Amino acid sequence: MNLIDNVIQILSPKWACERAAYRELLSRYEAGEINRFNDDWTPINADTENTDKTQRDIIKARARYLENNSDIANAAVGGIVRNVVGVGIKPQARTPLEALNKEIERLWDQWCRPENCDITGNQTFYEMQRMLLRRKIVDGEILVKKITDKDAVVPFKLQIIKSDMLDPYLLYAPKTNRVIRSGIELDDYLKPVAYWIRRKSPDGYIEYEPDRVPAAQIIHLWTKNQPDQIRGMSDLTPIIKRIKDTADYLDAETVAAKIAACFSVFITSEFGGANVGRGSKMDKDGKKLKRVSPGMIQYLSPGEKIETANPSRSITSAKDFVAVQERLAGSGLGLSYEMMSRDFQKASFSSARQGALEDRKTFEPMQLFMASHFCQVVYEEFMDAAVLSGALQIPDYWQHRTLYTKAEWVAPGWSWIDPEKEVDADIKAIQNGGKTLAQWCAERGYDWREQLEQMALEKQTAESLGLTLSVHTPESVQAAESNHKDNNQGKDEEHEPEEQEESEPES
Prior knowledge:
The chain is α+β, with helices and mostly antiparallel strands. The chain has helices at about 5-10, 15-25, 50, 55-70, 70-85, 100-110, 115, 125-140, 240-260, 315-335, 335-340, 350-390, 400-405, 420-430, 435-445, 450-465, 475-485, 490-495, 495-505; strands at about 90-95, 140-145, 155-160, 180, 185, 190-200, 205-215, 220, 265-270, 305-310, 405-410. It has 19 helices and eleven strands.
């Protein structure tokens, strides 16, 4: 309160209160004002699940519809899956024993076959990754159940369950009286204790008596955005309406273009519909046949004249509208316009590279999510089952389980935008210690051990054939080695006898 307010307060307390009230009124957030422009926009704050469950199914259904029918939505989802999972996120065993690492990876590759990892026997482990990520993006969540199968090479398989199978009606667990919300039994901290999953018969009918599956047997893939959130919402939620509006607009434009293309010329007559003058051919229904063909000369009847149809619709306006919508939809998913539209006509090297780098910042957290929330969990279960079944012989496994289940997950890499520039930059980074070979290989989706082993094999094979390979050695290193040899050639020749004499006792 300033000096003027103090004086007014002494002279007129009423006036001072009014000044304070109006000052407070002016200091409110404009975003919180309710006036004639936004009086129909009054959302409320409520419990997250109470809000989500009322619209989850309809949003999920709409997202699935767009996935199946919208090229824009399918391009976005497909682009994410290709870049995040690609051919698969693969493990590199990281136990202290290299021989054991190779044995684990050999057994893992065998288990990843459809008949060994999938309870339905239809998908490899890496195909399951792609489907799981797709369903997580479109549906918002997906469930994976761990199943024991003694007939498999490792007695452990996976069953993928749609989130639709979670029972929405149960409120309390029959025995424990714990709260059940949207099919998930929770403790006091909202931690899942069990999942109540309905069964579906082979003919597609759902049995309404659900099974209680402990949370330890379920992998629930979803994104948590609110502290009190317990289930996921479709990642397409912010852009569903925009994609549907764009699809409807394109359909309308297509219909309009078809209609416009059907009209070429109109013949108007001063005599109405009377057949005055030259006769016209009639079809079987008695209607005039009027055909326009290239180079045709048509003589009209008296009183008739031709008017051409010139539709005013322009493809440019439609193209600009769709481009804006795709750009906004891509922003909602964290994707660049080029990734959404596959349109690189106006992209320069700099803009394409910047867009690709920003896209990678979207893809990398998704890769980390898949690796930590799904792949590593499955890998640890695989190791437990392999040791228990005797497929892996590790005597002290249970004493050092964390050490033996350690793995590094290598996601697919990304192609170069400008190979020459980026390869040169990578070579300099490796030579200067800014990047390791393992980091470079991980960026490209390679196993650095396999790379070194293959390079050694190629070098050994080439030397056995009397060949010298330079492909595995950077040019700068080759030049340095050549200069070193040239500078020391004379000295080596002078000391050659002494070196021979010194080497005789060793032989």
